[in-house]
Amino acid sequence: MSRSVLVTGGNRGIGLAIAHAFAEAGDKVAITYRSGEPPAGFLAVKCDITDSEQVEQAYKEIEEKHGAVEVLVANAGVTRDQLLLRMSEEDFTSVVETNLTGTFRVVKRASKGMLRARKGRVVLISSVVGLMGSPGQANYAASKAGLVGFARSLARELGSRNITVNVVAPGFVDTDMTRVLTDEQRAGIVGNVPLGRYAQPEEIAASVRFLASEDAAYITGAVIPVDGGMGMGH
Q1: Under CATH, to which class is 4-226 assigned?
Q2: Rounded to two decimals, what is the model's pTM?
Q3: Is 142 one of the annotated binding-site residues?
């Protein structure tokens, strides 16, 4: 049965691959994007998740066209990498505001319809960096680690209403964001990955779609690493 799916930050990279995966399964897919031109084939809603009013308006548009959101994938995120002593307070707070507080906003709004329906799937996109840490990414790692505690609290809070909340923690993925790295940087990263390669965005999307499926109905509060073994033990 076709479900109403929302993928935040679904206009490129991992988010776009996730949107395609749900669309190929026959779901009605809406995406949010903050800038640029959105991809064709989806209900694209311009929305900055750091703005509560924009989040509310985005949900109203999606609900009018697709119905209440039944599957939410909170993927939108930013980086502002800098070593701690050079990191400004704005560098830190802006990343947390988007990656963690922005996720709070979109999940809270989606949960209203899910609670009424007594069912729902929420998948948060974290990162191996949130589990292992990474020099120069204290802000990003803190925001992504925070998603784990957020998800597990909600898994306990919403589970009695048949709403699952899980986390996918990708490793390094072959996207525009990682293609700007030098060959030396890329080689250094791959050297720490037991499988010896970057992930493809579609591999992250497959895990997300599984967690939103009936096959995963008894999985909640889980953190699924899709990182080629990079973060094992974390």
Answers
A1: alpha beta
A2: 0.95
A3: yes
